[in-house]
Fold these 2 entries.
Entry 1:
Amino acid sequence: MKLLSVVFLVGLSGTALAQQEAVEVGKAMAEQLKPYRECLKAEVAKAASKEQAQLIVQEACADLRLGIRSKLIATVHQILNPVPPSFNPDAAADGALKMTQVGAYYDYTGEVRAFHQRLKNQADERKQTRP
């Protein structure tokens, strides 16, 4: 029974370590994405329409995006040394860059703020109608 407890605790500590490493990677990636996010915000603000904003988000700041992509991958390798076989740093970097683009577009359109406001209004209505 003691052996089972020890194995369980070792498993939990390994999980906690993996979670801590994931948080570290996320924080480091978010920090490195700041210049790209600011560049996209500045460029997408020039858009005259949603369609133009989509094109700008996809094409703007390309040189910066390439530089940041390599930094993101290097950061993953630095924090997760060795990188687990189940984790793909290239895909993680590409996903982070894509989400930054999507975020810049939705910040421009205001659709996310409107969606959150609708959810908040619905929650408030439910609170008021409860007996």
Entry 2:
Amino acid sequence: MVGYDPEKKNLTNKQILIASATASFISRFLLQPLDVVKIRFQLQIEPIRDLKGSKYHNLFQTIRLIHHEEGIRAFWKGHIAAQVLSMTYNSAQMYAFEKVTKQLGEVFPITTSSPTAKTITHFITGSIAASIAIVSCQPADVLRTRFVGQGEPKVCQNLFFHVFL
């Protein structure tokens, strides 16, 4: 069962945070180049189909162009901010999901093994956990988008500078 189960051994808070942060770190590192491409498409004003007016047209052309113009390191622009975002979001969501599921299970115990009752419980706890996670990491999301989308000269140089000033 996903979430709190009073009959099984549960992970400690530390184990939940370490597991979710590690999974987030690895997946974010591997998928960062695709995130950079996605953000470039999102920030492009010209339509993608306008082959003469737009800079980026499709996935492979965009990857080649970024690599040619900015080098391989460009695919990891904003990576530290993205790691902070990903690790914060996933850790907060997993931790909140476990705790909210436990609290909800104690207040409204599910005495039946009804799939509908479990689905409703997971829907409610998942919604609450996702809301907590979104609120906790919104500033890192704004910074990540700024780092990835900026051109040269760089306006945002340092994550910590922009977080604390």
